[in-house]
TrEMBL record:
It comes from Drosophila navojoa. This is Derlin. It is a multi-pass membrane protein. One of its GO terms (cellular component) is endoplasmic reticulum membrane. May be involved in the degradation of misfolded endoplasmic reticulum (ER) luminal proteins. Residues 225-245 are annotated as: Disordered. Keywords: Endoplasmic reticulum, Membrane, Transmembrane, Transmembrane helix. The lineage of its organism: Eukaryota, Metazoa, Ecdysozoa, Arthropoda, Hexapoda. It comes from the Eukaryota. It is found in: Endoplasmic reticulum membrane. InterPro entries: DER1, Rhomboid-like_sf. Pfam families: DER1. Belongs to the derlin family.
Amino acid sequence: MDAGTWYHSLPRFTRYWLTATVGMSLLCRFGLLPMEYMYLSRELVLTRLQLWRCITSLFVFPLSGATGFHFLINCYFITQYSKNLEKDQYARSPSDYLYLLIITAVLANLGGMLFNVYFLMDMLVVAITYIWCQLNKEVIVSFWFGSRFKAMYLPWVLAGIELVFHGSLASLVGIFNGHVYYFLKFQYPQELGGNAFLETPEFLKRIAPDVSGGISGFGIPPESRAPPRQAANSAWGHGTALGRN
């Protein structure tokens, strides 16, 4: 498969994300975009209302000789785990995936301003990876030096490496952000019988309409721990509570 065919085979929002990240990072690297206007700053956002930084900090990565490999690893994770989430789990509802990206981007901005993280690529990538890993906990993934382990451990391995070698908490914040989404989208309504708080807004469904046909799913859904509800007697028999929408 040549590069063009591979690029166009990526699902829509993963392709947009990868393109914006690579394009804007390279433009900053070669001085065509001013880096001083790209990074996230709590003071500049909240006091000077430079709100564009909440967007640019999601896509710009400070490329240099020392960070190039880290950037490539992040891009690889986008093309693997974002692609898998969008293409498999969200294949029939692209608006749901767009909403996922928006929520994790908002959480990344909050985490970045709280912990003074200037560039949010790590947080966003780890959050998306965490969600995929939670939906595919038992899948065996390969990592460096031929190591293999269950997917549920992958985000923690990434966070540990970043903490040890870079002294950064960004990946740990990314795990927290991913878990917030996973809990509210899947665990709370499915395991605990709670309300579904993360229903995709209608305007996003108009932007990216649902796709009819095909097969998609959310990996292995969480087992319900909600107490059984007593069904009312009726001429139609007992109803069955659905585990998901």
